[in-house]
């Protein structure tokens, strides 16, 4: 009986590792796509600026036209990212890691827990704990960034409500504000 349980446990662990590896590969693939799009936009912008002829009469109009086009394309790209919950969730996870590093350094803790990060966000940045996470029959109040992180890393817990795209965007805004205005 112990051999069967051990065999099932080993098989389950291997399956979990395989799923985690597949998710990591997918995350890396999305990150590479975002980096490539960013690089292409930068390269196109750089090329556009280099290709402008030095003619006093039409430099301003040509620059304005190309800038408006690039700005329009950039707004469209941002809109796609903002309105796509999967990409927004991926971006949220990416900057959440930066937030963990920042708070870890600030608190001088090597491996910060989500509870420590949540307390830091609540006590230092006064972010309300207005989201409720249910786990093992208990309800835990969390800040929005920590709630979203838990949801994305534990999606099989059906007791918790999926964050709305607006909540993901708000959390991204909170995280970016903290990272850009470090105390």
Give the averaged pLDDT, no decimals.
77
Extended strand count = 2
Task: Give the low-confidence spans.
Answer: 53-57
Q: How much helix is in the residues? A: over 70%
Oligomer: single chain
How many structurally independent domains?
Answer: 2
Q: Tell me the strand order in the biggest sheet.
A: 1-2
Shape: globular
> Biggest sheet: strands, sense, closure?
2 strands, antiparallel
What structural class do helix, strand and pairing data support? mainly alpha
| Strand composition percent | 5-15%
**Tally of helical runs:** 6
Secondary-structure element pattern, one letter each:
HHHHEEHH
Cα distance spanning the termini? 57 Å
Q: What is the C-alpha radius of gyration, as a whole number of Å?
A: 22 Å
Explain this structure.
- Helices cover 73% and strands 5% of the residues.
- By secondary structure, it is mainly α.
- It has two domains: 2-83, no CATH class; 85-180, no CATH class.
- A two-stranded antiparallel sheet has the order 1-2.
- Strand 1 and strand 2 form a beta hairpin.
Main traits of this protein?
183 residues, mainly alpha, 2 domains, 6 helices, 73% helix
């Amino acid at each position: 009986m112990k051999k069967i349980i051990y065999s099932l446990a080993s098989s389950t662990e291997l399956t979990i590792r395989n799923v985690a590896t597949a998710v990591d590969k997918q995350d890396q693939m999305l990150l590479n796509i975002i980096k490539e799009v960013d690089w292409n936009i930068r390269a196109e912008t750089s090329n556009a600026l280099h290709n402008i002829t030095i003619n006093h009469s039409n430099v301003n109009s040509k620059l304005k036209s190309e800038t408006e086009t690039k700005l329009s394309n950039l707004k469209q790209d941002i809109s796609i990212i903002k309105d796509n919950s999967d990409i927004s969730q991926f971006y949220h996870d990416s900057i959440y890691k930066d937030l963990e590093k920042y708070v870890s350094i600030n608190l001088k803790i090597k491996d910060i827990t989500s509870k420590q990060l949540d307390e830091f966000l609540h006590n230092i940045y006064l972010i309300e704990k207005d989201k409720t996470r249910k786990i093992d029959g208990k309800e835990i109040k969390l800040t929005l960034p920590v709630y979203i992180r838990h949801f994305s890393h534990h999606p099989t817990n059906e007791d918790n409500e999926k964050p709305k795209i607006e909540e993901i965007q708000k959390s991204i805004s909170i995280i970016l504000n903290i990272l850009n205005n470090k105390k």
